[in-house]
Amino acid sequence: MPGSMANVPKDLLQQIQHLEEIFTVSTEKMKEITDHFVRELTKGLTVEGGSIPMNPTWCMGFPTGYETGTFLALDMGGTNLRVCEITLPEEKGEFDIIQSKYRMPEELKTGTADELWGYIADCLQQFIEYHHEGEDLDELPLGFTFSYPATQDYINHGVLQRWTKGFDIDGVEGKDVVPPFEAALAERGVPIKLTALINDTTGTLIASAYTDTAMKVGCIFGTGCNAAYMETCGEVPKLAHMKLDPETPIAINCEWGAFDNEHVVLPRTQYDVIIDKESPRPGQQAFEKMIAGLYLGEVFRLVLVDLYEKSHIFEGQDIAKLKRAYSLDASFLSSIEEDPYENLSETQDLLANKLSIQATRPELELCRRLAELIGTRAARLSSCGVAAIAKKKGWESFHVGADGSVFNKYPHFKTRGAAALREIFDWPKGKRDPIDIRAAEDGSGVGAALIAALTLKRIQEGNVAGIQHPETMLKGTKAADKKSDQV
């Protein structure tokens, strides 16, 4: 590993040791967090509920791999709108995909609801006109990845709890987003029927399970963090009034970023406390604020500012750029951890170019160690959530499909997470790990299409629990089947 502590002055060594003490999550602590996590997941499924919402998604079962038909998928992100057409052929676990991306204009995020749904409907119309010019289409079924916190009494309905990702459109929170969306489609005569409104974690779970039967959990480790897994209806007391078969599976969107909002068990530092206090919603998303990409750079920045103000680093330098909140993101830490040079010259250039700070060699060593500590803590805490689902369900061996920028791009995140699971479960060294976290399939595209397919299949079989106005969807079923016959 590049860098060495041999030439670090005693004062800085003491600071590094202190940082190691406060950012290191011990094996015992991870076990304690995991056990508390299990209790909180269970509480979230009760009528009274808890901090973790544990939202039932009305996706009731895994794909078999033999689903067929043609489906649209719409993914409404913070930056882009992605539209996919996914054809599921006869071959098990296969799919064909064509897709287009449309920019999400910034002004839409603070505009009116009519402008938002109108723009999305326009993009869908363009997509269909381009790919199906001159065709006489029946309604195509659509899976809509709407990754904003929503309450779902039905799979084809969703009441927005609150906007995130920079959106702030009046008159949408607290209302079902489906009717105005469908009205915009109808106004333009777009032949599409919304069949399923899904969260990206549920999509990740289902898309990954389509190609891998050992898949039991879908996770997002990105700007935010979340997980979904398949529960049985009998284990969800808040659904008891629906008299569902207790053995029926139902995917639960945990929304686990809210774990430990009460600050019972997570090892928060003074820097985590500041992040929470100065965030738009103090007291919420306690877990997310310690592990998600949005906050990793901010923790790093706060530590450096604190050390500067206590005269430990960057003496006599202007740190105006470093003092800007959220001026560093997770990729800044990634770059420091990936610096291959013994003298940490890339880190030196990074600090000079981004922050106008000329760092000494010992200060570079401290930055390097701090980035490692923050990145490692995030990975270890993330694994506590995966371990908690495993313990709650009594699953000993399975795969986890993970997506998101931190999982895919942050150096060593996967390895550190795997090491944490080994410690939590006391697995013997040298053997293959029974729980394997691996890169997920495309949840917001393929996953959304598959959930639409599974929903239509349920309607055909007469299982309409959690589906609003199922009779209006059967046209879509015929369209999907007819299209599949042509494939």
Short description:
This protein has helices at residues 10-23, 27-44, 113-131, 178-188, 200-211, 270-277, 288-291, 293-309, 330-337, 345-355, 361-393, 405-409, 413-425, 443-460, 474-486; strands at 55-56, 69-76, 80-88, 96-103, 140-145, 150-151, 159-160, 192-198, 215-221, 225-232, 249-253, 398-403, 435-439. It is of the alpha/beta class and 487 residues long.
Number of domains: 2
Specify the helix fraction band.
40-55%
How is the CATH topology of the largest domain named?
Hexokinase, domain 1
Number of helices: 15
Count of extended strands: 13
Q: What is the CA-based Rg, rounded?
A: 24 Å
- How would a crystallographer describe the biggest sheet? 6 strands, mixed
Q: What is the strand arrangement across the widest sheet?
A: 1-11-10-9-12-13
CATH class of the largest domain: Alpha Beta
Please give the alpha-carbon distance between the first and last residues: 53 Å
Principal-axes shape call: globular
Q: What fraction of residues sit in β-strands?
A: 15-25%
Pfam families: Hexokinase_1, Hexokinase_2
Organism: Cryomyces minteri
Domain Hexokinase N-terminal: 16-210
GO molecular function, one term: mannokinase activity
Q: Any key phrases for this structure?
A:
487 residues, alpha/beta, six-stranded mixed sheet, Nucleotidyltransferase, domain 5, Hexokinase, domain 1, single chain
How are the secondary structure elements laid out?
Blueprint: H1 10-23, H2 27-44, E1 55-56, E2 69-76, E3 80-88, E4 96-103, H3 113-131, E5 140-145, E6 150-151, E7 159-160, H4 178-188, E8 192-198, H5 200-211, E9 215-221, E10 225-232, E11 249-253, H6 270-277, H7 288-291, H8 293-309, H9 330-337, H10 345-355, H11 361-393, E12 398-403, H12 405-409, H13 413-425, E13 435-439, H14 443-460, H15 474-486
Parallel strand pairs: 2-5, 5-8, 9-12, 12-13
Antiparallel strand pairs: 1-11, 2-3, 3-4, 6-7, 9-10, 10-11
Helix pairs in contact: 1-11, 2-11, 2-13, 3-4, 5-14, 8-9, 8-11, 9-11, 11-13
